[in-house]
Structure formats: structure tokens, C-alpha cells
Amino acid sequence: MPLPAPRIARAPRVVRAALALGCAVGPALVLAPPAGAAEPSTVPVHCVIPLDQPAVDGPQQISLDGPSDPVRPGDKVRIKVTLGGSPATSPLPFPGTALTPSIQLLLSDGASGELTLQGPRMRVDIPGTPALIVVPPYEGEITVPLDAKGDIRIAPGKMVTSTAIFGDQITTCFPTTPAPPAMTLKVDPLAKALDGPSGNPADPGVSPPLAPGETPVQTPPQRAESPAGLAQQAGNASGLDAGAVRRGEDGGSGISAGTITLIVGGVVILIMAATAMLYSWRRHRDDEW
Q1: Smallest Cα–Cα separation from 111: which of 184, 178, 191?
Q2: Omega into 130 within 30° of 0, i.e. cis?
Q3: What is the number of alpha carbons within 13 Å of residue 14 lying toward its C-beta?
Q4: Taken in order 283, 285, 288, 289, is the CA torsion positive or negative?
Q5: Which of 27, 158, 246, 256 could be bridged to 174 by S-S, CB 3.0 to 4.6 A?
Q6: pLDDT value for 223
Q7: Nearest C-alpha neighbor of 36 from the set 80, 83, 101
Q8: Is the domain covering 35-185 a CATH 2.60.40 domain?
Q9: CA–CA distance, 180 with 171 (Å, rounded to integer)
Q10: In this predicted structure, what is the pLDDT of residue 28?
């Protein structure tokens, strides 16, 4: 006599509903990265290869990664570029080759235009065909446009690689169709960058912001010298009564500077005349003796 098949306990209705909800929501959570995070995308590109090699077409994987915190117009930010294997290959291997990458960034939404992100010079082991050439991840710096009005979406554009093989060889790969945005740069348009090459020069009439813990220093106002004050300085330098000079300039009852000059000149003349008379009298007296 055959044994009855065992009954499999069914999960409670609440558990089944939770599992179904998790399966539906899970993919959505995975596909929604935060702002500024890399969103890998595969772009069809056309590559122009140096040394009289034929151009090639193929897929190129590109990821861009930037800051997740909001930035200000005029700020400098660093963007990380991660590339997959390039359709451009080399007929021969070249280990330890100097290579300098760059990529064009296309802006939309909060700002428009193009920016070029320049990577550093690096050493790369270039394999021979059919192995793909992979440029190591690199970072570069860009400046947030001053006229940015909000979050900026950034899409990859033309990629230029300079390779030191028989001189400097340039490989250019550009998307054959517009690439989708690979990242979003959060921008606070109401904030302005405090410094940097793109900032406006400081207004000479406005004091710079104080650092934390710094106390303001009161600078005494500079006093403009009036004609009377200049006359007083001149009087002090020459030994004359500055008060008298000032009263004369003001039209008061004191002696003016011109009067003092005439008096001093008259006294000098009188002294010279008296000296001459005394000298003449003594000479006359000596002649009589």
C-alpha cells in the first residue's frame, strides 16, 4: 500500500506578500544610485588610430563618479573616470608606455556647454592584438560654471589619448550616437565660491570674512590734512609760532606769515647795517690814532 505524499506546509499569507513585494521593489532599489555616483554605460564609439592604422568601431564602457555633496558655482571638483576595454588595439605589445588620457564632458540641465577633463600622465602596459587596451581609472579637475542654475547632468563625449610610441601618438574615440548622462552633479546655485581662480576679486571697500576665532582689528581713520594743519607743520619745522600763522590765515587779529617774514627780513637788514656802521667807526678811529 503506497504511503500518502507528505503535505508541504504553505507559507503564511503575510510572508508570501512580503516576498512578492521584495522581489518587485528590490531591482528598483539597485537601479537608483545616489546623485554623483557612477552609472556605468556602454557607448558605441568610432576610434581613429595613429600610424596609418584603419579606424575601428566598437562598444566602450564609461563610468563617471563625482562628489555626492552639493557644490557651488565656481567651485573646483574632481571627477573620476573609469573605462572598459577600448576598441582600439595595438599590433604589438608596448610594456611600460607613457600615456595621457582626457575626456570631454557634455553638460545639460543646470548648465550647458562642454568641459575637458585632463588626466595625469601614467605608465600602462599596452598589449598586442587581439587583447583590448584598458586605460586605468584616473581623476581630473573641472570648474563648476558660474552661471549654473541647478543640478548638472554630465555625459561623456570625445576621448583623446596621447601615447608615447615612436613620438606622441594621438588616438581619438568619439560616440557615434549621443551618450546618455553618466552622472549628476548637485549644485547649490544660491551659494557662491569664496575663492579660486574663477572668483571675483575682492572689493577694496569691503573687509574680507573673518576666520573662526579671529577678532576684528579697528584701524583708526586717516585724517585729511587741512591747509591750516600743513601751515602748522611748516611753522613747527621753521621755529615760528604756528598759532600766529594759523590766525593770520584765518583773517584774525594775529600776525600773518607774510608779516613775520617782513619783520625777520627787516631785523636782518638792521643788524647788517649796524655791523657795517660799527666796522666803519672803528676803522676811522684807528686812522686817527
Answers
A1: 184
A2: yes
A3: 0
A4: negative
A5: 158
A6: 52
A7: 80
A8: yes
A9: 22
A10: 34
Whether residue 81 contacts residue 62, with contact meaning beta carbons closer than 8 Å, is answered with yes
pTM, entire model: 0.55
As a whole number of angstroms, the distance between CA 143 and CA 75 comes to 6
Beta bridge partners of 122: 99
Whether residue 178 contacts residue 108, with contact meaning beta carbons closer than 8 Å, is answered with no
Q: CA–CA separation, 124 vs 116, rounded Å?
A: 22
Instruction: Give the domain ranges of the chain.
Output: 35-185, 229-284
Cell of 246: 594759523
Q: Is residue 184 predicted with pLDDT exceeding 80?
A: yes
Cβ-based neighbour number of residue 46 at 10 Å: 15
Biggest CA pair distance of the chain: 185
φ, ψ of residue 26 in degrees (nearest 5): -55, -55
- CA-based R_g, the chain, Å: 44
